[in-house]
Amino acid sequence: MEVDVKEALLWCRQHPSLTEDDRAHIDRWMAEARDPVWQKIVAAIETADRLPPIQGGFFCFVVFSSLRCRRYAEEAVYETKAMKKERELEAQKRREGRLALASDIEDIVRRVRAHRRKWEAPPISATWRETEAQQALAWLEQQSRIIRRSAESSSDFSDNFVPETVSRQTGGVEKRPHSRQLGVFMKKMVNCMHQSTGNPRYEFVAKLTNVAFPNADFGAAEVRQRCRRRTRYTRR
Fold it and tell me: According to the model, what pLDDT value does residue 29 have?
C-alpha cells in the first residue's frame, strides 16, 4: 500500500514531544518526500511482517526511529565498561517490566473470562453490552501481545546485527565533521532496519543518514564499511 509521505511527515511533525531540531529534521525530509526509497522501506517492513500494528503506520515508525537515533547520536559519549554494564542493567529492567505488564494483562483477561463463564448465563443473542465486553477483552489481548513483542524485540547489545559502540574520537585528520555522531546513527539505524525487515538495508540507512545530517552525502557502500561486524563480540 502506497504511503502519502508528505501527509505522514506533517502528522509526525505535530507530535508534542518533538524538539526544534526534530522539526528541522522533518523539514529536510519533506524536501525529499518524492524519493521512491520511502515506499521501498515501507514495503520491506510490510513484507517482513516483524512489527505489530503501529499508530500512524510503518512509515511513521521509520520517522520516529530516525529522530530517536539522531538524538541519541548527538548526545552519545564514549562508554566505559561500568557505563555499559549500567545501561544493560537498565535495559534488562525495562524488558522485565514490560513482560511483567503483559503477563498481568493476560492474567486479568483469563480471570474475567473465567468469571463470566462461571457466574453469567450465556446471552440468547449478543447484546450491545456483551459485544462491548468482548471487544474490551480483545483489545486487552492485543495490547498484551504488542507489549510482549516489544519487550522480546527490544534492542540489546548482544542481539544487535552490529554492535553500537561509540568511538573515542569525535573527529580528526581525514575524518568527516561529526564523525562520532554519524557512526552511531548509522549503526543504530542498521540495527533498526535489521530488526524490522530482517536485513541491514544499507542503501536505506544511507538515505536516512543524509536526511538526518545535512551535507552527510553517504552511499550504501560507505554505510556498509562503517557498520562492518568486525568486533570481538561477533567473532566465532
Answer: 97
